[in-house]
Amino acid sequence: MTDLDIPAASGAARLFCPFPADFLWGAATAAYQVEGAWDEDGRTPSVWDTFSRRSGAIAFDQNGDVATDHYHRYKEDVALMKRLGLQSYRFSVSWSRIFPDAGGVPNPKGLDFYKRLVDELRAADIQPWMTLFHWDLPQWTEDRFGGWESRDCARVFADYAGYMAAQLGDRLSGVFTINEFMCFLDKGYVDTGELFAPGKNVCPRLLNQARHHAVYGHGLAVQAIRASGPQDLKVGLAENIPNIVPILETPEHIAATREALRELSGMYLTPIFEGRYHPGYLESAGADAPVFTDDEMAAIASPIDFVGLNLYAPTYVRHDPSTARGWSTVENGPGYPKMDMPWLAVGPSIMYWGPRMVAETWNAPEIYITENGCANPDRPNASNEIQDVGRVMYLQEHLIHLHRAADEGYPVKGYFVWSLMDNFEWAFGYTKRFGICYVNYETLERTPKLSAEFYSGVIRRNAVGG
User: Residues of the signal sequence (predicted)?
Assistant: First the structure.
């Protein structure tokens, strides 16, 4: 595989952006989106198995029963990662493979799959980074106590986290407790037009309480991992923060952006880093605010070693003295460029401002970009090549801005492209492709796209050019 030749911009000297020598390059997937084998080896349904069987919930009534069959093809997929030069792989665990029911008895066949996967990765010199919860809540938790609406969900999640840390912690490079609170809560418990599993439509009070139980579950899981796993195992989370960008790079707009981050993250990252919900969040919730104790807030603020940022599309912020909070957001406008998703507006500077704002606001010790990528209407040409030039340009421009963050000393330690391969894209089913490797959903053959060649060259050079 050869490097993609990137021409110099406007005839000027070529921009060459080297990353720190220890920068980590990887790719990410999620269990329900790639594994398949939905009822094999003792696995029981997750809320996504149930939701995808609701008529009209998923495009063309598709589901993740087979997905990309990663469960059976993981060796092939690890070999593909090795071929591309990946240094790390972020995968998630299907919780209901490990604990198939409420009895609390682990399923050895489910655990064995992840042991085999991790061993295969390590043998290929690819670091395994494990996510414990990427939205596929076991259906039994929903049936037994209403999922995240109950504190019991936080408790059983911590039990699961401690077990996985004890069983696999010595083979892992890092553990993410939870991926993207906003998506599985704000889209799973309220019908905003793009409904996710479990497909509820609850009142604001129950949504806020579910939010609290989820961040509480994260905190309990951090404590359980530290108690059960190796002392040097890194623990953090991955969150799709409001991707705030100052409308102009001036002190007043930057300060406004920092405050916007705290308030817009007021129910998720703010309590995790500050030990309290943002006053603006509680004030706006009023009588519907979550009920919590001091002990629960202390658990939520359990120290973490890193934070993962899932960065896709920007939200622009400006200093606005006409508002009580001193800032407001700015619409992108109808002509703003987008990729092949209704929400995916292109704004590469998120890769600089996201890490910078999180570092400056909360003094995060380490930051990883745990998701970044785009959907593209990819199709093979007559030579079976996938020339996804749009994705190449998307990744190139975003990585140039990420380089700026690293070059200015913000603690960005690694980057996981989303995604390794095309897969089940939640409510969109198989109609949207985010992979750097193409998947033929009839044969399940994987084919690296032009973006894979580009990304492989970035890893090999540890640099991006433009």
Answer: none
